[in-house]
Batch of 2 targets.
Target 1
Amino acid sequence: MGELKGACILGQSGGPTAVINATAAGVIQEALKQDCITAVYGAAHGIQGILNEKFYDMSKEDPYELELLKTTPSSLLGSVRYKLKDPDEDDTEYKKLLEIFKKYNIRYFFYNGGNDSMDTCNKISKYMQKVGYECRVMGVPKTIDNDLWGTDHCPGYGSAAKYIATSTMEIYLDVRAYDTKMITVLEIMGRNAGWLTAASALAGVQGYGPDLIYLPEIPFDIDKFIDEVMSVYEKKKNIIVAVSEGVRDKDGKYIFEYGPALHKHTDAFGHVQLGGLAATLAGILKEKTGAKVRGIEFSLLQRCAAHIASLTDVNEAYLAGQAAVQYAVQGITDKMIAFERAEGPEYKCNIKLVNLTDVANVEKKVPREWINKDGNGVTEEFIKYAMPLIQGESRPPFENGLPRFARLKKVLATK
Amino acid sequence: MGELKGACILGQSGGPTAVINATAAGVIQEALKQDCITAVYGAAHGIQGILNEKFYDMSKEDPYELELLKTTPSSLLGSVRYKLKDPDEDDTEYKKLLEIFKKYNIRYFFYNGGNDSMDTCNKISKYMQKVGYECRVMGVPKTIDNDLWGTDHCPGYGSAAKYIATSTMEIYLDVRAYDTKMITVLEIMGRNAGWLTAASALAGVQGYGPDLIYLPEIPFDIDKFIDEVMSVYEKKKNIIVAVSEGVRDKDGKYIFEYGPALHKHTDAFGHVQLGGLAATLAGILKEKTGAKVRGIEFSLLQRCAAHIASLTDVNEAYLAGQAAVQYAVQGITDKMIAFERAEGPEYKCNIKLVNLTDVANVEKKVPREWINKDGNGVTEEFIKYAMPLIQGESRPPFENGLPRFARLKKVLATK
């Protein structure tokens, strides 16, 4: 594992978060420092940009703008949901990738994403090994869903959790302004894992939490739900119920399909795109109970709110990107950067490496023992786990009253 | 107009904002300093609390918690939507109020609210004058809708505008992560006046603005809307459309009534409570165009987001409350505190007084000349007007990663 001289390329993949660009800053700033890295490319829309030979020369960017990436949400290089075929069945795209890697002498490949993206990263890593092209491949975790296997948590989660907890607190005060009865249903993202919805419980640490919380880990029974809501509502008269967009009944049918499903789509991985659940449940509760019910969907706001990101999350996202480059330069390949929580009373997170093979396509759900017995709330263990992840406040610099986000020149690399 | 010795009472009324409690801090802290004010009461749920003889002794509160009111959203004393009868038809409630005012020797009445609340304030003022009970009555403006007559702008608007502009910028980046076509419809509050929806245009100052903006001031033509959206969509492929919840067709029918109206309610003033417009329009656009369309409703988040309030707004809200007390002590009554923008290149706002009679029930809409010719955007004049109002960032102190909002003891006043 001697020195490997060549270019590096970074791809952003999967759904946006508040800190995916902070990871990009970590990768790019670190790579620009490394002597053995001869060029630093940023792929336009992940693997798709590489296949289309469309990537940017990051050395052409203003260093101040690269610094601003730390507080700029979404995927500024452009993201993608693109599933590579099994190379044993069809290796056309892999051959194309290899050709481009050779053409630009790309020897370092960094891919920042979630489960599906680690699958892509893993396939490329294994293919390059198979054909004997020396290239160090490193996955960097990213997902607000926090469902990646092998890591204590994922960059992106802490910021989304902080936004959700803060907004839940603010809504708690808002819906209590009037001396009237009301049920508020919060719809929170999370297709199969309830990490984000569980984060609403953090508002309860300050005394402004939801009364009931429903995660997709537990089959959702609409009658039980109505009974539980009514039981709390009768006692408290003004209640908040947090529900994951991904809740399904015992037969696996999404609850939002019970009502008008206005945002139903299917993405390239065959995932149904969710939405409209809050409205559906609000309609059902209104019909069944006659209560005043308001549905609130946090929607995209929860994943792109850089203005109230977790500083811990931003710093860790940056470090993950930086570490990926440092390890790769040292000779590591075929791994994903992961976090390991140190023992002891103080929160401390160390970086470890996990095998891409082990991570690809595996989903980590909220453990059953962190969900209460009735399946309508979370336990103290979850709170202890999540609180350190939302510590510290990060926001972009504000200019003229508005956030100043990074502006990239996006100079296309040529050969 | 000599010194008037007696108690004062503050009522919060109408919809929550991020800064209504900042005004309360201004009133309470200033009133506690005044020798002629013998007690400082805060009404539980505005006029309803006074009628029910339920109000709090604010001198019992911890000064630190009163200070925290400046960064605590919603209406911490409790708000109300309650319409007093015409005293010439039924003066029962006025007699009750007079009795309570006499019992507690209330000589200063401060009412913080919007159009409807100024109607309440005006009726009480005129009644007290008619029956010869000396009481200084001051209205203090408050509404995210910014539709109060006689003032340059209203406390609450700047913070909601800042939240809307910031969130629009973040959504702008989020929806561009993928290299795919999409129409995003933002639903923004505002029943009859388009000030809040217009604020989405402020995101455009940084280059992240919506492509089309529809205000309730202009009759909404669904076919024209579809044509305009499609025309921009064909050129740009990824577009954002901001629409006020209150848009109506030429016959006055709400557009959200074209589709499923899940949140339809009527409040005490006979206003229809709106919501679900984004979903309705998204559904219509999807059906007509086949495009991928996402509807996002800012919902309550836009009016309670103290975590990204405008510092200018917070400061002005505080000053308005403070000024109300100072003027009343000096002998002024039957007025509302208003803002007047000073001439000159620098933004400076002076306090002036307007007659309650002139303010009650009058709505100030966005001037036609601040809306573009096609009725689907705003002009530079609007931007110039609104930008100073979102300057500076205010947020609550954060403790353990979460906002620390004011906690009041709410000790009931007794006599």
Target 2
Amino acid sequence: MSEKKLTVAVLGATGAVGRRILDQLQQSTIPYGTVRALASAKSAGEKVPFGHEVLTVEEATASSFEGVDLVLASAGGSVSKNLAPAAVKAGAVVIDNSSYWRMDNNVPLVVPEVNPEALLHHKGIIANPNCSTTQLVMALKPIHDRFGLDQVIISTYQAASGAGQAAIDEVKAEAQARLNGQSMAEHAKILPVKSDKKHYPLAFNLLPQIDVFEDGDYTHEEYKMIHETKKILLDDKDSREMKVTGTAVRVPVIIGHGESVYVQTGDEQATVADIRQLMVDFPGVVLEDDVAHQVYPQPVEAEGKRETFVGRIRADLENPGAFHLWIVSDNLLKGAAWNTVEIAEKMVEMNLL
Amino acid sequence: MSEKKLTVAVLGATGAVGRRILDQLQQSTIPYGTVRALASAKSAGEKVPFGHEVLTVEEATASSFEGVDLVLASAGGSVSKNLAPAAVKAGAVVIDNSSYWRMDNNVPLVVPEVNPEALLHHKGIIANPNCSTTQLVMALKPIHDRFGLDQVIISTYQAASGAGQAAIDEVKAEAQARLNGQSMAEHAKILPVKSDKKHYPLAFNLLPQIDVFEDGDYTHEEYKMIHETKKILLDDKDSREMKVTGTAVRVPVIIGHGESVYVQTGDEQATVADIRQLMVDFPGVVLEDDVAHQVYPQPVEAEGKRETFVGRIRADLENPGAFHLWIVSDNLLKGAAWNTVEIAEKMVEMNLL
């Protein structure tokens, strides 16, 4: 373990994830000394809580990182693109929540329980996976290692908070409008995608679009889930050894993503009991699968928790070795802030910080 | 076409589906004469609208069906079990929304666009499929006929109204409580399953339980979807020719079920363009699949419409001949009331009424 106190900068400290990074950092085993809150010029001067202290937000610029050992970043792709190299040049390690660096061959994409060894080869920037990927690979990893995975098919049920605080406010305003018998349409300004042309209400609705559309009519979110899952689980980068596909849907939940996942393992002898035991044994995963007592993962129960919850495990009755899983986790914690801080904890433990 | 005026009884006329059956009947091409509203003793004397008229609800008993030609029933399994045979004995044809008769070998299970020929062999009772099945087979039928279907994997996103008006009221009360910063728990009395032991809030949540749990930890809803889909699509009842499996999830939507469906066709040469054309050509299906203009099916847009909407059609990039579909329909109309009335329209057209 490193003995020095680390100077930590939280970049994007005023956002829904940034505030939670400060919370998680404060509760972590990381030996932090000075903690600085950085954000855009617009937010400079704002106050953000850090345990019982209050930090004053400073504007983030390329010269903000002098003397900083660790940057925990959640400020969007373009900010990370510009500032992460400056922070690395100043001697810091950057753990980044944006999608910008994730598929870069020189950047490890890490879930600490799943592929900590990837941290050994870092070159200053470590990427935190997309929220829908993180909880998915937590459940897939032990199955992949024990039985192999031939195919994974995912349908997501993703919460509004994945699009930030403004999306949370929007879905609440829409819900109140409909409960009052008023139109929801005027409140729809952010979802499904702020930068896209049309906006639709999410309250009491389902939006099968998360992020922009790309080749083959898949969304960027769907591609992130596919490519990041392969990068994390496949050592040799041979994507052909495990097929991954899926559909990403935004649902009117505030916090907590659900995923209905179908896995075809490589072993026709694998049983539901085997899969359940793998979940029990895997750190960070909690098995919630006792249907006789109506126990199964639910977003409102996962809110505020660090773990990934797995239940509704069933064998496909016609396809040996294939199973259904229902995976739920707090998308702002394991899907973002906690995984980021947990990477730093792991790097301290591995003497990489 | 039959020329006589049909005496029609709507059984369960006070429920969310029953009221919509009256609406759909009033707007239909069925040559109805007298229309009677039947329900439990508790509701006798209540008034229900029928177009510009008002009907007075009568108590439904075994002797209610004298002179009735057609019974449109949506009153639950135990009522249908008891009263449908009495109605048939009195000379009526019964089109039933409950699950009780659906898998009976002597009862056709019918979606008029999909398998009208099954009506030819009816023995008085015709079953209307479960809501999640109906919209599914609307999209699957043309694919099955053209390319064959080796496997179908479904994840549902089902609206509260599938559990009746009380469930709609419950999810609205929960949503208002959470928006007010109050606990949702006290409002949870019906969902996920009224007769089961525990009840959980659905507002801003996801409940991976619809109906009770059965063998292999599948829910009754999941089995209904699997078995009914096979009964409707497979002429020879050989279930091995098409594997069907899935997960049913209740979502905080009022009206309109979503389904994320993965199909492995029997033809590796099938293309997205082929699947889209099949949807355009199939009666009752509307293709909503123009992602460049953010056009895709949404429950709030499907509400009040009779059609089944299909979009987000994509090829699995690693598995030739496999596709994703996103299917949305009003679960109270095509999933229930409209399909029931449409069966009767089709029977009139086929001179079976």
